[in-house]
Amino acid sequence: NMFKKLLTGLILISISTISYANELISFEQEQISINIPADWNILKKEQVDHIKNTASSTINQHIESRTILGATSHINDHFGQIRLSINDDITLTENMLLGLKQNEIMELKLEIEKSVQKFSQKAGITVFNINASILYSPKIATLISYIRSGKNNSYWLVKKYRFPDSKHNREIMLTLSYD
């Protein structure tokens, strides 16, 4: 389906510098399907829960989304992470995003950027080059991208896509992070 191709394409384009797999493996859960490189490690539920709980305690805030897929890669001193999550409380529908006027888009971008800054301060990480945008094709979404500090003086590029799914009254979130 088109959404699976879109998610898979976003992953492959974003992680092309750290993944050399010629094969893809398919993942499907909760009516969402995606392909990821076969050389990535799919995390067990306990590992994903541990990462999420650590993040929640670091920022002292409960994270509402349900992570249905977590995967990592470590090739030639480069790391990558994929997280596919669902938020059952849809905040922006497709129609709301399509109906935004230019000044409302700018306000939304500023609100998103402030939220990222607030989160990073709570987490004790440095974030810069924050950019928020709305993608209109092939499926409407918001995209937040930024660079954040990591361990051992590393820097990670983070891209967070949020796809409204009004049909199922939820948001589908794809987060790609790599150094």
Describe the model.
The strands form two sheets. Strands 3-4-5-9-8-7-6 form a seven-stranded antiparallel beta sheet, sandwiched between helices. Strands 1-2 form a two-stranded antiparallel ribbon. The model has no long low-confidence stretch (mean pLDDT about 80). By secondary structure, the protein is an alpha+beta fold. It contains four helices and nine strands; from the N terminus they run αβββαββααββββ.
Spans with pLDDT under 50 lasting ≥5 residues? none
Reading side by side through the largest sheet, how are the strands ordered?
3-4-5-9-8-7-6
Largest sheet: 7 strands, antiparallel
Quick one: overall form? Answer: globular
Please work out how many helical segments DSSP would assign.
4
Q: Which secondary structure elements does this structure contain, and how are they paired or packed?
A:
Elements: H1 2-14, E1 24-29, E2 32-37, E3 41-42, H2 45-59, E4 66-75, E5 78-87, H3 94-98, H4 102-123, E6 127-135, E7 141-149, E8 155-165, E9 170-178
Antiparallel strand pairs: 1-2, 3-4, 4-5, 5-9, 6-7, 7-8, 8-9
Describe this structure in a few short sentences.
With 179 residues, the chain is of the alpha+beta class.
Features of this protein?
179 residues; globular; 40% strand; 4 helices; 31% helix; alpha+beta; two-stranded antiparallel ribbon
